[in-house]
Specification:
It is a single chain. By secondary structure, this protein is an all-beta fold. It is 0% helix and 49% strand. Strands 2, 4, 5, 6, 9, 10 and 11 form a seven-stranded mixed beta sheet that branches. A four-stranded antiparallel beta sheet has the order 1-3-8-7, with no helix packed on it. Strand 7 and strand 8 form a beta hairpin. The chain is globular and about 40 Å long.
């Protein structure tokens, strides 16, 4: 059974850091592009970042470039999102997602853009 389980969210002040984790089972990182997608309160789903494990290519939406880093620990079957210099606009529920296509640059994405989703972990950036 394919499962994606996010963790690591929490409350942080602007300028702070968090590292999100996504433990996966039922597939390997070679099978799918891995992505992080977020949903801010009252907003739609926004693609944040993607990683293609075989090529090791990474991609980021403009608003997080230079601040967020996507990576994997293959031995632990875990995807990460290191988030630095967090801003209030980063407040959202963050989802780990797996799909044949990772990068979706349009303003709003849909659940159908990815094959599998985690349950989400909440990130709040607030003083």
């Amino acid at each position: 059974e394919v499962q994606l389980v996010e963790s690591g969210g929490g409350l942080v002040q602007p300028g702070g850091s968090l590292k999100l984790s996504c433990a996966v089972s039922g597939f390997t990182f070679d099978d799918y592009a891995m992505s992080w997608v977020r949903q801010a309160p009252g907003k739609g789903l926004e693609w944040v970042s993607s990683l293609y494990s075989v090529s090791k290519n990474t991609y980021y939406t403009d608003s997080v470039k230079g601040r967020f880093t996507i990576s994997t620990d293959n031995a632990k079957d875990t995807l990460y999102l290191q988030m630095n210099n967090l801003k209030p606009d980063d407040t959202a529920v963050y989802y780990c997602a797996a799909g044949m296509i990772g990068v979706h640059t349009r303003l709003e994405v849909t659940r159908k853009d990815y094959n599998y989703w985690g349950q989400g972990t909440q990130v709040i950036v607030f003083p």
